[in-house]
């Protein structure tokens, strides 16, 4: 047989499929569960606590700066009860993806720092960051509300809670006094009109002679005096 034909016959030879082995006869596969490292769990717990225990959470882009500048920035922020947190994106992203803060995930790109505070001190934070160009504000979550950079700046312009409460109390205290004056206005007006009416009656009675309230009439001369 020619060599080329032998190759063709070998290629086109029918090979019967092997019978399939039932799955129950195959050895069971052991699922390997990857356990997180203890240090990774600790870092993730710190992220959860930072987002849970603070009202203001600010995400910033961090550019390289000297250690002295970092210490000064931390010192100025800590004066206003604002803490600086350095979290790795590999730690933050899995935590946020399973929480209500998952809309903040697009901000965690590159090198970031997180500023947290139990109080909403956006005005003080912006004042400090204004002198630190290496830290750029990206966004924040204040009182469970996600804000952009412009939103944080607008929030900082709002009056403080104490001032707002004072204005509200003043407005509420003014309403009862206005209501009382409005209710008394009708009776005071009516009393003034009645007094004016009584004065007009008295003036008219004094001007009319012979009236009970007027001046007595002069007596006419008697006839005896006329006879004389």
Topology:
Elements: H1 3-11, H2 38-52, E1 56-62, H3 67-78, E2 83-85, H4 89-96, E3 112-117, H5 122-129, E4 135-142, E5 145-148, H6 149-156, H7 161-207, H8 223-227
Antiparallel strand pairs: 1-3, 1-4, 2-3, 4-5
Helix pairs in contact: 5-6
Order of helices and strands: HHEHEHEHEEHHH
CATH class of one domain: Alpha Beta
**Main beta sheet:** 5 strands, antiparallel
CATH architectural category of one domain: 2-Layer Sandwich
Number of strands: 5
List keywords for this structure.
elongated; 8 helices; five-stranded antiparallel β-sheet; 12% strand; 228 residues; Alpha-Beta Plaits
Task: Give a written overview of the molecule.
This protein is α+β, with helices and mostly antiparallel strands and 228 residues long. It has helices at residues 3-11, 38-52, 67-78, 89-96, 122-129, 149-156, 161-207, 223-227, and strands at residues 56-62, 83-85, 112-117, 135-142, 145-148. It has a domain at 40-161: Alpha-Beta Plaits (2-Layer Sandwich). The chain has eight helices and five strands, in the order H-H-E-H-E-H-E-H-E-E-H-H-H. It has a five-stranded antiparallel beta sheet. Strand 4 and strand 5 (145-148) form a beta hairpin. It is elongated, with a radius of gyration of 47 Å.
What's this model, at a glance?
The protein has helices at residues 3-11, 38-52, 67-78, 89-96, 122-129, 149-156, 161-207, 223-227; strands at residues 56-62, 83-85, 112-117, 135-142, 145-148. It is an alpha+beta fold. The model is unreliable at 222-228 (pLDDT under 50).
